[in-house]
Design brief:
Blueprint lengths: L1 H26 E4 L3 E7 L4 E2 L8 E4 L5 E6 L3 E10 L5 E12 L4 H7 L4 H18 L4 H7 L1 H17 L3 E12 L2 H51 L2 H16 L5 E4 L9 E4 L2
Antiparallel strand pairs: 1-4, 2-3, 2-5, 6-7, 7-8, 9-10
Helix pairs in contact: 3-5
């Protein structure tokens, strides 16, 4: 009798173990470092948007649904044809980097589900790219205002996505493809502009050098005029007398004739 009871207990235990193992994946779960999760309570309050489950090991009732989101930064590449300000068709390749706000995944699940990338992110990026590029010409997008276009796309995309709890730290233009004729015309124009700037630089440099020389010449002329005006006969005689006195102190043999010069200045005769 005891053996029969033991067999029954063993069978029941095995059955319970099998049932537990079959539903263990619905009871036990692990959230990774770059993940967050929310639970939908079928027989309770429904989607628990405010209680975001952090990383680690967790349990739940097997009849409740679990939604796990990756909250690390991800990227998507988009290829599209857009029209510039003049109606010219441009092919652009764009990369958007994004991630859901970790503490707001419940609101994303309620409004867009886990397919939020295709429902929200990509359509908004494509729409914003078309709107922004429609404000510029192909030449500006291709050359002079590319950084400005990227900034406008990122700012406007980020503003819309953040209202729906998604961050968009970067929207990058990977490449711009124009019709060959238009591309050649733009590049030729840019080259001519660079050559014109280089010529203007050389011209300005030559003008600056000419102006420098003119100012230097005028300064030298004024200095000479000042010197000439200050050299009176009396001053020259006085400087000559001073120089004669200094020379007379020299130990070298010499003969000084006072008042024998053409202007009355002393003459100094010597063998050294």
């Amino acid at each position: 009798m005891n053996n029969r009871k033991n067999v029954v207990y063993i069978v029941i235990g095995v059955i319970l173990l099998i049932v537990l193992m079959s539903i263990s994946s619905s009871i036990f779960y692990t959230i990774g470092p770059s993940e967050r999760a929310i639970v939908f309570y079928k027989f309770g309050k429904g989607l628990d948007k405010d209680n975001v489950i952090e990383q680690g090991f967790h349990t739940k009732a097997p009849w409740n649904d679990l939604y796990v989101y990756s909250v690390n930064e991800m990227s998507s590449d988009e290829n599209m044809d857009v029209l510039d300000k003049s109606g010219l068709s441009i092919h652009v390749d764009v990369t958007v980097r994004y991630n859901p706000m970790p503490d707001k995944i419940g609101f994303i699940q309620e409004k867009f589900t886990k397919n939020y990338v295709n429902v929200l992110v990509i359509p908004e990026v494509r729409s914003t790219v078309r709107q922004v590029m429609g404000r510029y010409t192909a030449e500006e997008i291709y050359s002079t205002k590319r950084a400005e276009v990227e900034t406008a796309i990122r700012t406007e995309t980020e503003k819309i996505l953040q209202l729906n709890f998604v961050n968009a730290p970067a929207v990058l233009i990977r490449s711009i493809l124009l019709p060959e004729q238009i591309k050649g015309a733009i590049e030729n124009k840019l080259q001519q502009e660079q050559e014109a700037l280089a010529y203007q630089f050389r011209l300005d440099k030559e003008k600056s050098e000419a102006e420098r020389k003119r100012i230097a010449a005028e300064g030298e002329s004024r200095a000479n005029n000042i010197i000439n005006n200050s050299l009176t006969n009396n001053l020259l005689k006085m400087r000559g007398i001073e120089a004669t006195l200094e020379l007379s102190k020299s130990p070298n043999a010499k003969v000084i004739v006072i008042g024998s010069g053409g202007d009355g200045m002393p003459l100094i005769l010597g063998n050294n």
